[in-house]
Design brief:
The structure is a single chain. This protein is an alpha/beta fold. It has one domain: P-loop containing nucleotide triphosphate hydrolases (Rossmann fold), CATH 3.40.50. It contains 7 helices and 10 strands. The strands form 2 sheets. It has a 6-stranded mixed beta sheet, with helices on both faces. Helix 6 links the parallel strand 7 and strand 8. Helix 5 runs parallel beside helix 6. The longest helix is centred in the last third of the chain and has 18 residues. The relative contact order is 0.20.
């Protein structure tokens, strides 16, 4: 079985069983199969890198984990709950409550300050206590990532690496159980990418943030506790070579 496992006996935070993903046939040809029997188990507090070349299905797999895309077959459970029977509205609530997302592009609103961008996900959260505490938490997190003196700056006044750090804090503002990162260093220069890799590793190790990142970067993958390669639609052991 090419998946991370734990002998703790507790319910895993995330479990994927025989995940398949195919798309509609084109011009009478058989539908392309992107994922072919993917199995994965992740415990709370672990960090995982999924590596592989562009176009191999890494983002598709991450979108399935993040309940943005439904699989063609197989089972996804989160904290023991099967996601298959949830409506689109229920999945949207699930994502906003339990998941945080970081993308290759930071997707910050240019007219909003760093602090305002961070607070956006909290505005639609159902937990009133979390909403009330969000501004203070946002300031603390921005300080943690070295942006405590940049809270009023808009994205156009920040470097690419700083914008991506704001995006990381935004992903954390609702205190998610799982942080998902899709090529988070792909648009950064080497130094900024290294600093972001350090930040993600620190959040995992010192803050206990559970993390899944898909990347083509061996340097970022090396910072994660667990590493797998997506090849021919399946997860296999990772080899840096």
């Amino acid at each position: 079985m090419t998946q991370p496992t734990s002998s703790s006996g507790s319910t895993p935070l995330l479990s994927l069983i025989d995940i398949e993903k195919s798309y509609d046939a084109l011009d009478g040809h058989a539908p392309p199969s992107v994922l072919q029997g993917v199995n994965l188990t992740l415990e709370a507090g672990q960090s995982l890198a999924i590596v592989g070349p562009s176009g191999c299905g890494k983002s598709t797999l991450l979108n399935i984990i993040g309940a943005l895309t439904r699989p063609s077959g197989g089972t996804v459970t989160f904290d023991g709950v099967d996601l298959a029977n949830k409506s689109d509205e229920q999945l949207a609530t699930f994502r906003n409550t339990h998941l945080g997302f970081i993308f290759q592009s930071h997707h910050l609103l240019p007219q909003c300050s760093a602090l305002e961008n961070v607070l956006i996900p909290s505005l639609v959260h159902h937990d009133d206590d979390l909403k009330r505490s969000a501004p203070q938490r946002a300031k603390e997190l921005l300080d943690l990532v070295g942006l405590g003196d940049r809270t009023a700056h808009k994205p156009g006044q920040l470097s690419g690496g700083e914008c991506q750090r704001v995006a990381v804090v935004r992903a954390l503002i609702n205190q998610p159980k799982l942080l998902l990162a899709d090529e988070p260093t792909g648009s950064l220069d080497e130094d900024s990418a290294a600093h972001l890799g350090d930040l993600l590793a620190t959040l995992n190790q010192e803050q206990g943030v559970t993390l899944v990142t898909v990347t083509h970067s061996p340097a970022l993958a090396a910072r994660m506790e667990l590493k797998l390669t997506l090849r021919r639609g399946r997860l296999e052991p990772w080899s840096e070579a």
